[in-house]
Structures are given as structure tokens and as C-alpha cells.
Write a structure and sequence with these properties.
It is built from nine helices and eight strands. It is of the alpha/beta class. A hairpin with a 4-residue loop joins β5 (167-168) and β6. The radius of gyration is 20 Å and the shape is globular.
Amino acid sequence: MVYLDEFSIQQCQGCMNCVFKQVPCKLEDDLYEFLGKVSGADALFLTAPTYVLAVPGSMKLAMDRYLAMYKQIREHYGRPAVSVGIGGPLGWEQFQLPLMNLFLLAFGFEDVDSFMVYGAGPGQALLDDEAISRVRKGVEKLLTYQHRPFKSQTSRHCPVCYSTLFERLEGGRYRCPVCTVEAEERPDGFHFQSDSLNNHRWTLERIEDHYEDWILETKESFMQALRSIMRKKKELGIGV
């Protein structure tokens, strides 16, 4: 059992040394200790309270250090996970599961189940027998997990990340902002094609392409523009 709030994780400074110099992050905190705990897990059951419609800030701090952990995450890609958000009143948690599952996908896990339980005070959700039953079913899914490609399907949430938030595109199409799968609106939900589901943003192939073909390539263009950036900052009175 791992409690994120027991680890001191600092805010990313955006220096990019972990990428361009291929060195461990210079910040002296518990990031790599936390990563070791997560990387060593065969499966993950993630729970988090809902603060102001979304996850606690500690989860965002950990996600923002993604590039410093990229190589270790890639080496342990594809393990199963279940996420359970804990909310207060219904309707005040719309960003909770999408951000919890963004956390899981970024850390190389595959969401096999995701749902909310409700309770206004600490531990109050434990009094809900239906919630406890749902949790047990989630654990069973973890224990019996076998990776299978996605099939075309109609659903009211994204089958990859369980988000119910969608961007509206042209031509009656919608896109999940977390994993970029596209869908068509149907009377009973959104219809997702298997090709899109199996090529979502967080597949191993796509995160490797993003790292190699975009992130690493930004170093040269940034260095070429550095003098112009410094002149502009001086002109605008920024950082002087």
C-alpha cells in the first residue's frame, strides 16, 4: 500500500536536463522512491478524494515530473489498474476520473475499471454496501486481467480512460481529450471504432514517437531561438 502524501514531490522546474542531458532530476525529493514503488507493482488499485471537482494537487505534481520518469515508465508498460474516485455530492466530480486515469495512463498502466463512490466525510463511503461490492468487482478484474485489443463499441464514456468529457469536432464527431480517441454520437452514446481505440495517445508506440520525434527535437530549435528569446525578454522587462 502506497500513500502519495507520504512522499515529498516538488514542482517541476522545466529545466529539461532529464531529457537533453539524460541525467536524473536534480530536485532533491522522493520522486524516484515513489517511482520505484509504483514500478515494482504488478497491478495498481488507485483511490483519490475529489478536491474542487478534481484530484489533489499531489497527483498533478507527480504527473508533471513525467519526463524525469519516462524511461522507467516505458520499461514497465502495460500493467492493469483500477481507479476509484471518492466524491461528495453527485455532480461535483466531473474531472476526477479523467485525471486519475490520465495519471495511470501516463505511468504506463491500462485502466480495466474506473468508477466513483460517494461519502461526504472521511471513510463515509465504506458504509455504502453497493460501493464495497463495486470495489470487490474491481479487484477481481485486476486479478483476472488479460490484455486484449479494444473492439468497436458504443459507450457513454471513453473505453480507454473512462472520461465522459469530449471535444466536439466537425461532422458530428467527438474526441476524448485525455487519450484522443474519436467517436460518433449515437442515440445510446458514442460509437468508437477499434482502430482509434487501439491507437490512443498513451499506447507505447505513440508515447515513444512523441518523445523521440517531438520532445527531443525541441532542443535544437530552442537553442537556435535562445538569443531572440533573451532579447525579447529584455525588451518586455521580463526577468530583469
